[in-house]
């Protein structure tokens, strides 16, 4: 990951975790404290507690997104499984919306509706994770993502589905924020 791109990772306001700094702090290298709880003080919250906060997120898709946001900028972590899980979630939601709307696959047969849903989901998650929306034109995003739909057609017919995916990502972030807040409340009591 290039340094400039790495600096953009997780900077989208839509993907802001309320406990993001708390989750990230101390999750890198394991630190051992041998004086835990001495003198009548409660033990400190450690990396295991923070990992448990992510592990106890109820929605598997929200958990995958939380994992991406907390560990995704670590070059040593293979985040493809979490990324793919969130893409699958977004693509299925888009596909279902298209069915309800009576939307068919793009004319010209370049992609099936399932393929297009997956490609748009992959593009949306990638561009949101790296906050790249203002850097690329619609044509550039489509080319980068392998979506073979004319830019004008995409703007007119498919941008609304992309926007719904961004709402879906915000919904997942809200689930993460709620579950981590509950965990932290229990941890403090």
Structure, described:
- With 189 residues, the chain is mainly alpha-helical.
- It is elongated.
- The chain has eight helices and no strands.
Looking at the structure, what is the overall shape? elongated
Tally of individual helices: 8
By helix and strand content, what is the structural category? mainly alpha
Report Rg.
Answer: 19 Å
* Helix-strand pattern: HHHHHHHH
| Number of beta strands | 0
Largest sheet: none
**What distance lies between the first and last C-alpha atoms, to the nearest angstrom?**
41 Å
Show unreliable segments: 29-36
Query: Strand portion, in percent?
Result: under 5%
The averaged pLDDT comes out at 88
Question: Portion of residues in helices?
Answer: 55-70%
Record the SSE blueprint:
Blueprint: H1 3-8, H2 20-24, H3 47-55, H4 60-71, H5 80-101, H6 113-129, H7 138-145, H8 151-188
Helix pairs in contact: 4-5, 4-8, 5-6, 5-8, 6-7, 6-8
Brief account:
The protein is mainly alpha-helical and 189 residues long.
What keywords describe this structure?
62% helix, mainly alpha, 189 residues
């Amino acid at each position: 990951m290039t340094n400039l791109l790495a600096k953009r990772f997780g900077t989208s306001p839509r993907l802001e975790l309320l406990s993001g700094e708390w989750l990230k702090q101390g999750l890198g290298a394991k630190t051992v404290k041998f004086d835990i709880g001495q003198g009548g003080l409660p033990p400190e919250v450690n990396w295991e507690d923070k990992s448990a906060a992510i592990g106890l997120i109820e929605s598997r898709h929200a958990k995958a997104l939380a994992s991406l946001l907390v560990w995704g900028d670590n070059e040593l972590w293979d985040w493809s499984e979490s990324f793919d899980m969130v893409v699958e979630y977004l693509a299925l939601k888009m596909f279902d919306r298209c069915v309800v709307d009576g939307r068919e696959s793009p004319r010209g047969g370049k992609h099936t509706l399932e393929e297009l849903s997956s490609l748009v989901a992959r593009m949306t998650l990638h561009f949101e994770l790296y906050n790249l929306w203002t850097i690329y034109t619609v044509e550039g995003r489509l080319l980068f993502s392998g979506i073979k739909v004319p830019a004008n057609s995409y703007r007119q017919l498919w941008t609304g589905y992309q926007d719904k995916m961004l709402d879906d990502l915000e919904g997942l972030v809200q689930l993460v924020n709620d579950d981590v807040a509950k965990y932290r409340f229990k941890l403090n009591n």
